[in-house]
Amino acid sequence: MGPALVDFHCHLDLYPDHAAAVERCERDGVFTLTVTTTPKAWPRNHELAAATRHVRVALGLHPQLVADRAHEIGLWEEYLPRTRYVGEVGLDASPRFYKSFDTQKEVFARILSLCAAAGNKIVSTHSVRATKAVLDMIEQYMPPSRGRVVLHWFTGTAAEARRAVDLGCYFSVNAEMLANEKRAAITKVLPLHRVLTETDGPFTQTGGHPATPSDVRVAVEGLARLHGISFNDMSATILSNLKGLLAEGIR
């Protein structure tokens, strides 16, 4: 057995059997951050994960749902003291969701401000066609001394990656980000000490089925090839990065 695997962005409550998905993470020994898309989903997620060793739940309000659910930010705020993990949150400027972009920014600003005020939160952040705006808001509302942002499925430029590193950000990398040369090129510039792995299951596929947390090994394999190191060394690096992130104890 090599080092344990890490899936730092997955949607366990969107699989057909939520409880079984949680149990499978526990059985397979995959350290999994399950994100939620609405605060209403948080209590049930928390209940299923509370007794596990490997599963932690993030409190989210997905930018793609903000148009209909911005009012749930009050409920999100109510639950925030009960978790260290926040996500999925962020900004989405793709054509389908751009009409709510101003509202998304208001919600994300409030989320970052509240996380900064609380201190020591870890925030899994969505950014589609909005990397600069996301980084601007992290810089404005959540300095590195007040918490950590993990950029999920980063698609920005090399310069934006450097800026994100300067802002204290980590990156969670999935197999899709390594699927071709162009995508892999930006992933290669991310400093290895800030890299975690993710599946974003069930929204990604592995072998023709929705990816599950244990499928995160495909991302580990891809990163190992990209950096010319062994699978075991890469998975050990990812695990070490996770332990470092959790131990930072930012206040």
From TrEMBL:
<feature type="binding site">
    <location>
        <position position="11"/>
    </location>
    <ligand>
        <name>a divalent metal cation 1</name>
    </ligand>
</feature>
<dbReference type="Pfam" id="PF01026">
    <property type="entry name" value="TatD_DNase"/>
</dbReference>
<protein>
    <submittedName>
        <fullName>Mg-dependent DNase</fullName>
        <ecNumber>3.1.21.-</ecNumber>
    </submittedName>
</protein>
<dbReference type="InterPro" id="IPR049677">
    <property type="entry name" value="QatD"/>
</dbReference>
<keyword id="KW-0378">Hydrolase</keyword>
<dbReference type="GO" id="GO:0016788">
    <property type="term" value="F:hydrolase activity, acting on ester bonds"/>
</dbReference>
<feature type="binding site">
    <location>
        <position position="152"/>
    </location>
    <ligand>
        <name>a divalent metal cation 2</name>
    </ligand>
</feature>
<feature type="binding site">
    <location>
        <position position="9"/>
    </location>
    <ligand>
        <name>a divalent metal cation 1</name>
    </ligand>
</feature>
<dbReference type="InterPro" id="IPR001130">
    <property type="entry name" value="TatD-like"/>
</dbReference>
<feature type="binding site">
    <location>
        <position position="126"/>
    </location>
    <ligand>
        <name>a divalent metal cation 2</name>
    </ligand>
</feature>
<dbReference type="InterPro" id="IPR032466">
    <property type="entry name" value="Metal_Hydrolase"/>
</dbReference>
<feature type="binding site">
    <location>
        <position position="88"/>
    </location>
    <ligand>
        <name>a divalent metal cation 1</name>
    </ligand>
</feature>
<keyword id="KW-0479">Metal-binding</keyword>
<dbReference type="GO" id="GO:0046872">
    <property type="term" value="F:metal ion binding"/>
</dbReference>
<feature type="binding site">
    <location>
        <position position="200"/>
    </location>
    <ligand>
        <name>a divalent metal cation 1</name>
    </ligand>
</feature>
